[in-house]
Specification:
By secondary structure, the protein is of the alpha/beta class. The chain is built from 6 helices and 6 strands. Strands 1-6-4-5 form a 4-stranded parallel sheet. Strands 2-3 form a two-stranded antiparallel ribbon.
């Protein structure tokens, strides 16, 4: 969790963003966005839209038999959105390449550090931070 606020680790992982401050924290209303266009506009204002575009350009067709087994595309990991409860944000972000939405109670190392490499670009909601404090 601490590595999500370290700018050097996040940049070393290959993420692209314009924000100078990490971690990125958004208000409670962000959890209720149900439209992809609304989520896109917020990501653009936060300065992380270039990371979503990086994930879209990096989507490749998988080598081997996995293509025939339902795993046709290999998609780079983009921003992770951590919320306290899903009030529609999962619907709004599911069609954006590389973006994943996870609740605090479902948070694990594989989501925070895909492939064991720490420093994933993470967007936290205020209630998610409060829920994380309550878990201590």
């Amino acid at each position: 969790i601490a590595s999500t606020s370290n700018k050097d680790l996040v940049l070393a992982r290959g993420h692209r963003f314009k924000s100078s401050e990490l971690p990125l924290v958004v208000v409670r209303e962000f959890e209720g966005l149900k439209k992809t266009s609304e989520v896109k506009s917020v990501l653009q204002r936060l300065g992380v839209w270039s990371d979503v575009e990086r994930a879209k350009k990096g989507t490749k067709i998988r080598a081997g038999k996995g293509k025939r087994r339902g795993r046709r595309y290999r998609e780079p990991r983009g921003p992770l959105i951590v919320v306290a409860e899903d009030r529609g944000i999962r619907l709004g972000a599911r069609n954006l390449p590389g973006v994943e939405v996870v609740e605090v109670k479902e948070l694990n190392v594989e989501k925070l550090a895909p492939g064991g490499v720490p420093g994933r670009l993470t967007i936290w909601s205020e209630p998610a931070i409060q829920a994380l404090e309550a878990l201590k």
